[in-house]
Every structure is written in structure tokens, then in C-alpha cells.
Amino acid sequence: MKRKIELLAPGGDLGSIKAAIAAGADAIYCGLDKFNARHRAENISFEDLVGVLALAHRHSCRVFLTLNIMMVESDIPVVVGILNKLVNTSIDGVIVQDLGVFYLLAKYFKGLKIHASTQLTTHNQGQIKFLKEIGATRVNLSRELNIHEIGPLATAGHKENIATEVFVHGSYCICFSGICYMSSVHGGNSGNRGRCSQPCRDQYVTTPAGKDFPLNLKDNSAYFDLKILADAGVDALKIEGRVKGFDYVYTVTNTYKKRLQSLQHKNKALDDSSDLYRVFNRGFTNSYLLGDIGKHMYSENPRNHSADLITKGAPPEALDIIANHKARVREKIEDLSIAKVPLTVRISGRAGTPLKLSVSTPDTSFVLSSESCLTLQRIASTGLQLNTAMFLERLKAVNETRYYIDHLELQDLEPGLYVPLREIKSIKRKLLSLLNGSREHIDPIALPVLAKPSNPKTKPILSVLIDSTKDLPLGHETRADIHFQLPSGLKRECPDLMALFTRNRNLIPWFPSVLIGEDYTAAVSLLLQIPPRRIVTNNTGIAYQAWKAKIPWIAGPYLNIANSLSLLILRENFDCYGAFVSNELSKLQIKRIKPPEDFNLYYSIYHPMLLITSRQCLFHQVTGCEKDMADDACLSHCEKSAIITNLKRDSFLIKKTKGNYSNIYYQKNFLNTEIVTDFPSLFSSFLIDLRDIETETKTELNKSMLIELFENHLDQHANSSRDLNRSILPTINTLYNKGVVP
User: Fold this and answer.
1) Nearest 5°: phi and psi at 357?
2) Domain count, the chain
């Protein structure tokens, strides 16, 4: 293996960051105590980060900061504050999920490299091109992809000057990352806010297949597949584990590093993976990578398998090995310090001479001088009197670098002197630049205040989502827009769908979140050959193609749009027609959003609540299946449903329809009639989902009657909200009242 490939390790706290450095990681990803997708990790402070950067860079290790959650409007000023400080550090990249943060970075913080988080569910070439347009320099690919799908994406990334990154070790999610709402809907802890409570790891009532943990996957391990990943063109291998301990991080990183070095120098890999079993694991599988998706990927034990060595009475010598290893790792990291470097600053000057700052560190010293001379009389309203308090205030930004002012001397400064404010600013900039490796200091930016659109929206219309041709007559019975849900497995159904949209020119295609390989190619072909008057897409790869083809497009509800800047980047970069606001938001969080001028906002007021979309077959563990493996035929032909119930007696619907991946739905549909009256002029359209997904929610009304009742509500007929809530039972509306928590 001739090509060098980066090994990227997790850093959930200072101990694990130091362990990754000691183990030879090429890079580390870590988060601050706010705005990252591992809220349960201890994380680090900004002051810690500055020391971490110095330590890591001394060991030729890069550091990437995670800001990879969905941001609500109230988060944006705080994020700007973080970025204003971050841009003056030596951080090597920022990992991002939210499109609004992409907007900030690309427009105001061009010096920071942007990495697209796995939460963006990247799995096709159009998505890579979309991310390129908004400034990404690296993308973390979806964990569900196999090596034959990864290779073309790595090649496509290189053509766009985007590096690709793949998870090689650690926890697998049962769901495509970024489109999992199970924790949010069920427990109020949004995975898109880094607060996933892992309900997929919970115990459930024993299924007909005899399983108690029907959603629990083994951990990912591509230890024996590093060469094929390198040969496929992947640029970075990522280890999962920011909530795991320092011994886990050291062991896994060190094990992978040795194998990579062996491949690099000898073209022959070490084959001993035994150390990986001595730290946290749920058993291992590489089946997604090999395209070998099946029931062998599940485990009935979601706990730490390495702990079983203790609980099952492992020989004393085995336990001693584990204990001694942990002690040795602790010794390795104890001497790695992130302490700041002290500065001594001596200030001198007399009237008629320049102001001088003599700065010394334990390793070096230098002198800075003002361009103007000092004066005993205040020469302008902007002049500053020179004293200890003034210097400590004006130079406090030094303490946000890897240095701190330990000693400040003014003994050689004549009393009563003044200097223009611009001179103090100039000296401060020079000082900060020198302390930051001669990089120019960047002043903080103030985010412009966004104005509400001057043109109020007209009365909103109703939109209806269907997925069956038998519901096409609904389009003749209503003035509502009719959207047709396309399947993820498009390649087999493309000819029939082409004919469908050719016959029904007013039908609006609704593209799904996941479109992989040939299914994505088929989706693009369908889009360009129809072409429709407008589309809704939950996949940014299709959004990119629609933009290039000048087809009006709407960002779907599973793109997690939650702030004004996300709308702005869609409008400015991709001429987006409109966007659905995330159903995870509360009334107050929606109220703060300000859409661009002439931009359409959408909201789904009635739908079955999608919790999980999985490439895995969810029926192996629930009802059983005659096939051990999931294949293309399963995607295109399988049609099943089942119920699972957790030990709290909450039930969930597993639904597999032809052409689609397995989905899990909450057993109560979402119904929010309040938003129509709460925001009478904000939204252009409200959507109702009338697909045949049979949850516990029932109604005696047929679909035509439901449409009429919803249209009456949009027309603000008296008692229409009451009639809807009485006609459709049971329903849930918790998220609109609570929203996503900080």
C-alpha cells in the first residue's frame, strides 16, 4: 500500500485526546461543551482546546472541532461567538451538519476548513457536488455503504477537491445518520442535537423470532479491510467513540496505526486484532462494508462484551492483562500537558517616544513598538490613558491563545501618558499574530440582523402526499397540490414512474432521503426526462441536479431545516424555491425564523411519524425471515409490517414497502392544527400525508373527506380544528409544544 491514509481518532475528553496522540493518531475530532453530536461525552472547554491544539501539533496530529448538530435560531449568535474565537486558532477543520453553519463558515470564516458530518447522510455523487458548492473540503460518508459504492464516491470527491472519510471502527447505528427521530419523538432527546438516548439498544418484549434486543447491531470493525479502503481512494479512516474511555481510544487507535504502518512499509499487514476485544465492544462485523447485510449483524447483547471477561469469571491472568494495560496507558498520557505558556510583558515609553512592548516566553522574546509617539496631553477623544487596567482589558484576547499574561510590568512607563486607540489596536493585532504563528489576527464579525420579508404570504394552500396510483383521483377533487412519494429503489420502477408523470403533469415528485448508486442515477434520469414543474426532495443530490437543470425545488422535511441561515444558503447558492421547516421545532423556535424575500415555507401538519430508515432488514429479529441476507430483490419486492413493544409498553410500527428501505414509525400520527392559526401568513402551504401507513391512529373519514376538512381549517372555518382533532384519533403534538432542547 503506497498511499498514506489518515487515521482519525475520537476525543471525548482530555484523557482520550491525549491517548489518541500517544497512540499515534494522525488527527483527532473533539467537541466543546456546546453544539456537538455527542452531548453525553465530557467534551472540553475552549481554553482546553487551545492547549490541545498546541499539544497535538507538536506531535504532528491535526485537530477537527465538531459543531455537528442542527441549530435553531437562538443558537446562531452563540455559534458566531465561538467561530470568532476559533478563526484565530490553529484548528485544522470544523465538522458541520447544519446548513446555516455552512453559510456562516463559507461567507464569514473562509479561513476555516469545513468537513461535512456523517449526519448529512452522504451516499451519492450529487450530494458531494452539493457539499462542494457550500464550501466542504471533506465529507464523512454514510456507514451503510459497501466498498463498491465507496470507491466511485471517493473518485467523485477527488474530482471536486473533496476528501472522503469512512468510519472503520465503533458503534453502528441501525438508522441512516441524520434521519433518525426515534429518540426525539419517543424520549424528547433529539439525535440531531447530539442527545440520542439510544432506544435502539433497549430491551423489547420478546419478539415472535425470540429476540429481546431486535434493533441492536454489533459494532463496526474494518480492521482487516484497510487495504481495500485505501485502494478505493478513501482519504481518512475514522474511529467512533467520543463517549468511551481513554484506554479504548488508545487501544483501538494504536491497533489500527500498527496495521496501517505495516501495510504502508511492508505491504503486509499485521493480523492480530485481539486487543480490540479487550476494550468496549458489542462484537464485531464488517458486513456493511462487504455488502453482506444480514441477520448475523445483530447481537442480543448490547452491553460491553469486554466486561463479560470479568462477569463470567475470566482467568486472573486475563484480568491482570486488562488492568495492567490500562495502567500503562495512563502512564503514557500523564506527561502530555496542555498547559498554557506564560508571558511576561514589559511596557515602556516616555513622552515624545514610541510605546514599546517587550514580550518574553520561556523560549523566545521580541519587541513591538507603536508608530505614533506618546503624549502627556490627550490629543483626541479616542486616546487612551496608559495604565495597568487598560492594558489588561485591551490585551485580554492574548489569554484566549495558547499563552497567558503571567506578569505585566509598567515600571519604565512615564505616568500620565496617552496613546491613540488605533495604536493599541495595531499593537494587539501584531502581538496576537506573532503568538499565533504569524497568522494575521481576524477581528470578530457581527452577524447582520435579518429582516422579515416585506411581502406577506397569501393564504396558504393544502398539499397532499400519496404513494399509490389509486389515490390519483384525489387530484381532481381538490385544489390542493398532490405530491407523489418516489421509492428509494428507483432503478426498477423508473419506466413506470416516467409514464405516470407524463400522464399526470400536475403531479409533483417527492424524492426520498436515500438514493444510492444506480437508484440515484435513475432518479436523476427521471428528474431530467419528465421534467416536472416543481419537486420536493429530501436528498441534496437531487437538489443539486434540480438546481443545475433550473427545475424549481423544495427542501423536504427530512433535511432538518431549523434556522434562517439554512434557508438563506439554499436560496443564494441553489435558487431554492422553498423549504419545509423541521417538525422537531417548537412554536417559539419556528417564530424566530425569518425566511428570505420571495421564499416559500412549508410545514407538515399531519403525517405518520417516521422514526428510523434502515438499510438493514428489520424483520430478521422480529418476525424472522426465510432469507439470511438482504439483497436487491428485498428492496424492490419485500412488503411486510410488524410491531415491536419496549418494556415501557410503547409500541412502534416496522413497515417495509416495495422499493423502499425498512422504516419504523411511531404508533400515533402527528397532528398539529394550531400552527395554521399561530402563523397565518408565514407558510405558503401545509402538508398532509395520506399514504397508507397503518398506525394506531384511525379515522372514519375517507381521504376526500379528510382533505375537505383540512381545507376548511386552512380557510379558518369555525370549529374546523375541533372537528379534525375529534375525527382523527389518537394523535400526538408534543414536539410543537416542546421543540428540541438546548
Assistant:
1) -115, 115
2) 3
Give the number of residues written for the chain.
742
Answer yes or no: are the C-beta atoms of 36 and 194 closer than 8 Å: yes
Residue 679, domain CATH: 3.20.20
Return d(Cα 60, Cα 594) in angstroms, integer: 44
What does the alpha-carbon distance between residue 585 and residue 72 come to, in Å, rounded to a whole number?
Answer: 8
Instruction: Give percent above pLDDT 70 in the chain.
Output: 95
Measure the CA–CA gap between 372 and 385, rounded to whole angstroms: 14
Would you say residue 662 lies in a domain? no
Grid cell at residue 712: 376548511
Q: Is residue 114 part of a domain?
A: yes
Residues with Cβ within 8 Å of 739's Cβ and at least 6 positions away in sequence, in order, are 72, 584, 585, 586, 587, 588, 589
pLDDT on residue 457:
67
- Say if residue 40's pLDDT is above 80: no
User: With contact defined as beta carbons under 8 Å apart, do 630 and 617 qualify?
Assistant: yes
Dihedral sign of CA atoms 408, 412, 416, 420 in order: negative
Domain assignment present for residue 616? The answer is no
Judgement on whether residues 311 and 410 belong to the same structural domain of the protein: no
**Integer Cα distance of 168 and 106 in angstroms:** 29
Residue type at position 614: S
Which DSSP helix (H) or strand (E) runs through 704? helix 703-714
Cα–Cα distance measured from residue 305 to residue 704, given in angstroms and rounded to the nearest whole number: 54
> Would 617 be classed as within a structural domain?
no
Of the candidates 579, 586, 538, the residue with the CA atom closest to the CA atom of residue 558: 538
Do 252 and 398 reside in the same domain of the chain? no
Q: Which of 456-460, 461-465, 517-521, 664-668 is least confident?
A: 456-460
Instruction: Return the closest-CA partner of residue 294 out of 615, 708, 710.
Output: 615
The packing angle between helices 147-159 and 125-133, to 10°, is 30
pLDDT for residue 312 is more than 70: no
Helix (H) or strand (E) holding 147: helix 147-159
CATH of the domain at 316: 3.20.20.70
What is the maximum alpha-carbon separation in the chain? Answer: 92
Mean local confidence (pLDDT), 303-326: 68
29 confidence band (pLDDT: 50, 70, 90): very high
Chain mean position to CA 349: 52
Whether residue 377 is found in the same domain as residue 268 = no
Contact 706, 699 (CB under 8 A): yes
Quote the CA–CA distance of 332 and 22 in Å, as a whole number. Answer: 7
Query: Peptide bond before 680: cis, by omega within 30 degrees of 0?
Result: no
C-alpha cell recorded at residue 176: 441512516
Domain C-terminal end among 334, 355, 377: 334
Same domain, yes or no, for 142 and 11?
A: yes
Q: In terms of domains, do 313 and 347 share one?
A: no
DSSP 319-375: HHHHHHHHHHHHHHHHT---PPEEEEEEEEE-BTSEEEEEEE-SS-EEEEEEEEEBB
Cell 474565537 belongs to which residue?
Answer: 85
| Torsion 367-372-376-380 (CA) sign | negative
Which one of 334, 369, 388 terminates a domain? 334
Domain shared by 386 and 528, yes or no: no
Residue 498 and residue 379 in one domain: no
Q: 732 forms bridges with which residues in the sheet?
A: 670
Question: Which residues does 532 contact at the CB level (< 8 Å), separation at least 6?
Answer: 501, 507, 508, 509, 551
Domain membership of residue 356 as a residue range? 341-435
**CA–CA distance, 54 with 337 (Å, rounded to integer):** 9
Q: CA-to-CA distance for 595 and 128, rounded, in angstroms?
A: 26
Residues 6+ apart with CB under 8 A from 599: 453, 567, 571, 576, 577, 578, 579
If you compute the radius of gyration of the chain from its CA atoms, what whole number of angstroms results? 29
More confident residue, 438 or 290: 290
**322 pLDDT tier (thresholds 50, 70, 90):** low
Do 469 and 484 lie in one domain? The reply is yes
